[in-house]
Design brief:
heterodimer; A: Aldehyde Oxidoreductase, domain 4; 5-stranded mixed β-sheet; 31 strands; 26% helix; B: alpha+beta; Uridine Diphospho-n-acetylenolpyruvylglucosamine Reductase, domain 3; Enolase-like, domain 1; 5-stranded antiparallel β-sheet; 4-stranded antiparallel β-sheet; 11 helices; 14 strands
Chain lengths: 774, 286
């Protein structure tokens, strides 16, 4: 049941398909179970592969002896670093669209002399059955010599700390300097300084990492894999020492990504095994393996020092940021940059200084996760806004309203904010939708409400020079085909392209077929990351469909004896706008164009704004194409004797520019609310001295249906986004404000604050103790 | 997952025959919600499993001379719909047990036999003075649950025995009795207890005639808080008396720090929830 409001406050023109909650083209396959995921594919003569993983978080590998494993009947190959000498995989830029790379951003495909986290891959077994492969793992003898290790960024930055990443464990550093924060701080009436901490969390997608690889009849290494990035074929080619055109990634519907399938997962293991055994090789991670060995969300420690006037104007902000990058670099530099750029949130502050470090440790590596650092930044800045309001004895919503950025203001990195900025509208509507305050069910229960606002980018960093391509064509019978390399990770990415094409070409949704996620056969569309596919591939599809429409429209205008701009397309008919009785069927028009050799298809490339890198000293420069703005409000109950928290009400209100499919957008927002609730209250990958002590879903606690209240969604449409029809991205942004809204509601209820997520009952009770003892 | 033989006897006699060699590697299998997980993870490596799922004698709930006899293979889901299980504590424990899918498979005997310190059904059964009926080829014995449980995953059951039933003595109808159970977890379903508390309280006017308190997840096995019971038994009801009892209960338990909570927090929650459950059961007898 969707609770969706979609008030048309900007008075946008009505469209035929865009904005409607149409049934998604992928819905039937999913509800009937017909949809195939990567792990559902099998091939004749297929082998099953498993990975041997390090038992130590930091150790020298003295020797690997696989003789007994190789001798086990049914084992076809045991592969170690010796089978791929010196091979490294680039970890820092998915899709290899840039050239800059810091030393030490590569990771070994298989560890040879050294392991840096518990769970690092050492060997691969390919066997006739998964059971034999598993059994063989136990027969591989690895001699380790444990080495000193570091488990927190603070330790890792100490002089003399064990080195995880050369030369000094500092994986990335960003500085953003705007104005003169130090001087401006002196003129503040009140200075508020607080530190906020977040935890490791797991993506916990329904579908763990999976894939199957084989060498095809042309000698092309072909990999069917669950991935957000088909462009990894380039890194795979480099690591396996193959030409790029000899690696072919075929995607499948992805059972959840959230950033966890942005990096390479199983591809190199099964690719190498397929090359060595000349047989198809399949690998599916168990849940435990997924929790142990794929990337986690970065824990952050963020300290805000903010100077404000007595009447609530933010004057100066000094922010220090520390992120745990884990054992390998992966996307830490960019996650850190997102956190740095978002550090002060959607507020106008003229004097800002941000100093940010990502530091290597012997923990599981961290990388992309929905929100990509900007979410952790919001956990800090939105809690901090409530703390400033408290210090000023001011309503936190009023403090926000006074300081929200406006269109035309600049971000801390000096980028001008374009388009509508409806922060106040979103906050007000989300708050009002909470309705009447709930009554406490007993004397030890208190009720609290909290809100968080945010601004968050959609589209990749503009110096990545991002592009996407799509092909749209009409068949002779008036049906349409879209070819676009977009991986659909469950957000309705393919449906979005169909709905755009339906609008532009007047073809019904059920007459559109989308081919996607193939690095060789569909035009490359870039990664399904960074809330970019609707914006990038949506625009590429829109451009391609518009080009087809232009050709057909021009020909139709001759036939209908009108001007080209008077022609419209709907319901498989092409007609004169003001006189629909003057028309031609789409099929007749297509036949006419075909007879004359006019193209009925178009391949289009959409190019995001391209900029140069930020100034390395001041962080000044353009960084993102555009931003989404919104707010989330919640009501919670807290048991003052036990610290137990229940979320009673939850409302997300976001300006998404224009909804392409309002039901899909509401689905994203509801999912973001559920994921944010887990982040705030229960989810915590606990890594103690390098060992994950929450190895399964019995210890790693996702919220259940009983924990999640119904979420109300309010979609506002300013029409000012850079996507097709003025749309903005919402996939990541809707998650971002949820956890800080919950933290603010809990703080309001108990009169003090827990500065560390998740807000476990025990931590909440400690905070209650502190507030009552003061 | 290691291979094992799966035997599916249709009668209790056949099941006992299969277990008769008294081999610890031959294990009875009920719902399998613990056992299969343990086998998959390597914590258990039985060579044979004797499934009790098709043994009709082990199913069903009946009342005999006032004693409630719960068949060992009764699932937790069945607890939620059976009119004879109106004991609030048992119902609440079953209601909060794991999730609906697990409740459809997991059995009462399985939960008892697993003997987890956090086993949800154990505290209510302790306050109800449950007895465990153990049968083998060599006979039948009745063991009080309090004696049955030895420690984490340790019980007095021999490898050739199966739990046939759980027996709960009749409540004395002339005296108002109420029971209650609370489980504190980190989420609302599918959570392992941080602590759990069960209380059975018998009231006589303004006096607490009898009270039993059991605590889960705060000792190597669920325990009775006998000191906390003693200070209330036969005493007039008062807020202070409940507080004192709760304070003693917190001293009687021996919790540990783990990934869910610290020992200190657990102790404190015992104090809160013993008091709350005493209050709640007292009020329900009004």
């Amino acid at each position: 049941m969707i609770h969706l409001d979609q008030p048309n406050i900007a008075d946008l023109p009505a469209l035929r398909h865009i904005g409607k909650p149409l049934p998604r083209i992928d819905a039937m396959g999913k509800v009937t179970g017909a949809t195939k995921y990567a792990g559902d594919y099998t091939m004749p003569n297929m082998l099953h592969a498993r990975v041997l993983r390090s038992k130590y978080p930091s150790a020298k590998i003295q020797s690997v002896n696989a003789a007994r494993a190789r001798a086990l009947p049914g084992v076809v190959a045991v592969l170690t670093a010796d089978d791929l000498p010196g091979s490294q995989v680039a970890t820092d830029i998915p899709g290899v669209t840039g050239t800059a790379k810091r030393a030490g951003t590569d990771a070994p495909v298989l560890a040879s002399d050294r392991v840096r986290f518990m769970g690092e891959a050492i060997a691969i077994v390919a066997a006739e059955t998964p059971e034999i492969a598993q059994q063989a793992l136990d027969l591989i003898e690895v001699e380790y010599e444990p080495l000193p290790a570091v488990y927190t960024p603070e330790e890792a930055m100490q002089p003399g700390a064990p080195i995880v990443t050369e030369p000094d464990n500092i994986v990335a550093r960003w500085r953003i300097v705007k104005g003169d924060a130090e001087s401006a701080m002196k003129s503040a009436d009140v200075i508020v300084e607080r530190t906020y901490r977040t935890q490791f969390i797991d993506h916990a997608y329904l579908e763990p990492e999976a894939g199957i690889a084989w060498v095809d009849e042309n000698g092309v290494l072909t990999i069917r894999v669950s991935t957000q990035v088909v462009e990894h074929f380039r890194s795979i080619a480099a690591a396996l020492q193959l030409p790029q055109n000899k690696v072919h990634i075929m995607g499948a519907m992805v059972g959840g990504g959230f950033g966890g399938k942005e990096d390479i997962t199983v591809e190199l293991f099964i690719g190498l095994a397929a090359l060595k055994t000349h047989r198809p090789v399949k690998m599916v991670y168990s849940r435990e393996e997924s929790i142990l060995a794929h990337c986690k969300r970065h824990p952050f420690t963020i300290t805000h020092k903010t100077g404000v006037t007595r009447n609530g104007r933010l004057l100066a902000s000094q922010v220090s940021v520390m992120a745990d990058s884990g054992a390998y670099v992966y996307l830490s530099p960019y996650v850190l940059l997102y956190a740095s750029a978002a550090a002060v949130g959607p507020y106008k502050v003229n004097h800002v200084s941000v100093d940010a470090f990502a530091v290597a440790t012997n923990n599981t590596f961290t990388s992309a996760f929905r929100g990509f650092g900007a979410a952790q930044a919001c956990v800090a800045y939105e809690q901090h806004m409530d703390e400033i309001a408290r210090a000023l004895d001011m309503d936190p919503r009023e403090l926000r309203r006074l300081n929200y950025v406006q269109a035309g203001d600049t971000t801390p990195n000096g980028q001008a904010i374009r388009g509508a900025v409806w922060l106040d509208e979103c906050a007000k509507r989300a708050w009002d939708a909470l309705g009447e305050m709930s009554e406490p069910s007993s004397p030890h229960i208190r009720i609290g409400r909290g809100l968080a606002s945010y601004m968050q980018s959609y589209g990749r960093i503009t110096w990545f020079h991002d592009t996407s391509q799509a092909w749209v064509g009409l068949e002779m019978d008036g049906s349409a085909v879209i070819r676009c390399g977009v991986p659909d990770i469950g957000g309705g990415q393919m449906n979005t392209l169909a709905q755009i094409t339906a609008e532009v070409l007047g073809v019904p949704m059920d007459r559109i077929t989308v081919y996607s996620t193939d690095s060789a056969l569909t035009p490359l569309a870039g990664t399904t990351t960074a809330t970019r596919q609707m914006y990038m591939s949506g625009n590429a599809t829109y451009q391609a469909a518009m080009a087809v429409r232009k050709t057909l429209g021009d020909r139709a205008s001759q036939h209908l004896e009108c001007e080209p701009d008077e022609v419209d397309f709907a319901d498989s008919t092409v007609f004169v706008k003001n006189d629909p009785s003057q028309n031609i069927s789409l099929t007749a028009l297509i036949a006419m164009c075909a007879a004359e050799g006019l193209p009925r298809a178009n391949l289009s490339l959409f190019k995001a704004p391209f900029t140069d890198k930020l100034d390395p000293e001041t962080g000044q420069g353009d960084l993102f194409p555009d931003y989404t703005f919104g707010a989330h409000a919640v009501e919670v109950s807290v048991d003052m004797e036990t610290g137990e928290v229940r979320v009673l009400k939850s409302v997300g209100c976001h300006d998404i520019g224009r909804a392409i499919n309002s039901a899909a957008a509401a689905g994203q927002i509801e999912g973001g609310a559920a994921m944010g609730l887990g982040y705030a209250l229960t989810e915590d990958v606990q890594i103690v001295n390098g060992v994950t002590i929450t190895p399964s879903f019995a210890e790693y606690l996702l919220p259940t249906a009983s924990d999640i209240p119904e979420t109300r969604t309010i979609i506002l449409e300013s029409g000012t986004g850079l996507g097709p029809f003025g749309a903005k991205g919402i996939g990541e942004p809707c998650f971002t404000p949820v956890a800080p809204a919950i933290a603010n509601a809990v703080a309001k209820a108990i009169g003090s604050r827990v500065h560390q997520l998740p807000l476990t009952p025990e931590r909440v009770l400690e905070a209650i103790d502190q507030s009552t003892h003061v | 997952m290691r291979d094992f033989d799966l035997l599916q006897p249709k009668t209790l006699t056949a099941a006992l025959d299969a277990l008769a060699p008294n081999d610890p590697a031959t294990r009875p299998l009920a719902g399998g919600t613990d056992m299969i997980v343990d086998i998959r993870s390597g914590r258990a490596a039985p060579t044979a499993l004797v499934s009790l799922q098709e043994v009709a004698e082990l199913r069903g709930i009946k009342r005999e001379n006032g004693t409630l006899q719960i068949g060992a293979a009764t699932t937790l889901a069945e607890f939620l719909t059976h009119p004879d299980l109106a004991h609030q504590a048992l119902y609440q424990a079953a209601y909060n047990f794991a999730n609906p899918m697990v409740r459809n498979l997991a059995t009462i005997a399985g939960n008892i036999n697993s003997a987890s310190p956090a086993g949800d059904m154990l505290p209510p059964l302790l306050v109800l003075d449950a007895q465990i009926e153990l049968v083998s080829k060599s006979g039948t014995r009745l063991v009080a649950l309090d004696q049955f449980l030895l420690g984490p995953r340790k019980t007095v059951r021999r490898a050739d025995e199966v739990i046939a039933s759980i027996r709960i003595p009749a409540l004395r109808p002339q005296s108002p009795v109420s029971t209650g159970f609370y489980k504190l977890g980190l989420r609302q379903a599918d959570a392992i207890s941080i602590i759990s508390v069960a209380v059975r309280l018998e009231r006589d006017g303004d006096t607490i005639r009898d009270v039993r308190i059991a605590l889960g997840a705060v000792a190597p096995r669920p325990i009775r808080a006998t000191g906390a019971e003693a200070v209330l038994r036969g005493q007039p009801f008062s807020e202070n008396a409940l507080k004192e009892s709760a304070r003693i209960a917190a001293q009687e338990c021996a919790p540990i720090d783990d990934l869910r909570a610290s020992a200190n927090y657990r102790r404190r929650m015992i104090q809160v929830y013993v008091r709350r459950m005493l209050e709640q059961t007292w009020n329900k007898t009004l």
